[in-house]
Write a structure and sequence with these properties.
alpha/beta; Rossmann fold; six-stranded mixed sheet; 10 strands; 39% helix; 20% strand; binds adenosine-5'-triphosphate; binds magnesium ion
């Protein structure tokens, strides 16, 4: 009887439709590269369970004092799902970089809180925050920020070196292969094109298997073809590797690679688009620009 119950239990488990399987692992600090179940769950249309990859609670960031105060972020409440690709857009000066830096623990909010994987980071001690950034967050910058004196492979391994963990050369080679640079590990960054350098930067951002990759205008310095390749890689990091990507961009075509676009205006959230296409993103940006010029006229 007990045996039969056991077997029934086993059958029930094995016969459970794929769509009922948990979309995400309980803990996401070490996604199983190169194939992560989170990505499969996400592409199957799942909503991720709490905690979110990144959560902002009433995040305010002001610069300066008194009459010189700049309200860069005016109270952002936001939840970014695990295994998602989010683009952040808005007019120049709307707070996009400030948002990214607060969300990534590179800057501290004036008030409010930021949670990474459910853990509050806004008031972490500086050494803990540095450690967290090195081990749990990846960065891609507009200007690549590779160290010119190191080889490409050494650049990819740098986050592990800084974090004081074993340098995984096999993973570095695997990531360089994934970004289309399998034979470039011994070169210096100066011997690569801009697009190739940015692909190295993406490999570097993924080497620690971070919970979130933050990218600030990653295609801003690239031509259309190189930009397309970088965007395809970020998309693949989400779909195949289970990464979570948050990308600031000015480009509606770049934003259309994301699952969701958030719009910022004057330090506040000003709407969002799901499954964006370039036309609808451009139209929303034009609306924001029009609203801003009306506000300027009214002021
Ligand atoms: N270190 C700083 N000191 C003073 N003001 C700052 C500082 N950093 C940003 N700001 C101000 O905060 C506001 C938001 O800046 P932020 O760089 O986040 O905008 P952005 O949306 O990234 O703009 P862009 O598209 O031009 O990169 C702007 O008014 C900017 O001048
Ligand atoms: Mg900026």
């Amino acid at each position: 009887m007990a045996l039969r119950r056991d077997r029934t239990h086993t059958e029930t488990r094995t016969k459970r439709p794929r769509s009922e399987a948990p979309a995400y692992p309980e803990h996401h600090t070490a996604p199983a590269y190169p194939e992560h179940p989170a990505a499969q769950g996400y592409s199957a249309g799942f909503q991720p369970p709490a905690p979110a990859a990144v959560e902002l609670r009433s995040v305010v960031r002001t610069y300066g004092r008194g009459s010189n105060t700049v309200h860069a972020l005016r109270g952002i409440d936001l939840s970014l799902p695990r295994g998602g690709f989010t683009a952040v857009m808005g007019p120049s000066g709307s707070g996009k970089s400030t948002f990214l830096q607060c969300a990534a623990g590179l800057d501290r909010p004036t008030s409010g809180d930021v949670l990474l994987g459910g853990e509050s980071i806004a008031r972490l001690r500086e050494d803990r925050l540095t450690e967290l950034r090195r081990s749990r967050i990846g960065f891609v910058f507009q200007s690549f920020n590779l160290l010119p004196s190191l080889t490409v492979a050494q650049n990819v391994l740098l986050p592990q070196r800084l974090a004081g963990v074993r340098q995984d050369r096999a993973l570095a080679q695997q990531l360089l292969t994934e970004v289309g640079l399998p034979a470039h590990g011994d070169r210096r960054p100066g011997q690569l094109s801009g697009g190739q350098q940015q692909r190295v930067a993406i490999a570097r951002a993924l080497i620690t298997r971070p919970e979130v990759v933050f990218a600030d205008e990653p295609t801003g310095a690239l031509d259309t073809q190189a930009a397309q390749e970088v965007l395809a890689l970020l998309r693949r990091a989400v779909d195949s590797l289970g990464a979570t990507v948050v990308m600031v961009t000015h480009d509606p075509v770049a934003a259309s690679h994301a699952d969701r676009v958030l719009f910022l205006a004057d330090g506040a959230l000003a709407g969002e688009l799901h499954r964006p296409d370039p036309q609808s993103v451009a139209a929303r940006m034009a609306d924001l620009a029009t609203a801003r010029s009306f506000a300027g006229v009214a002021a």
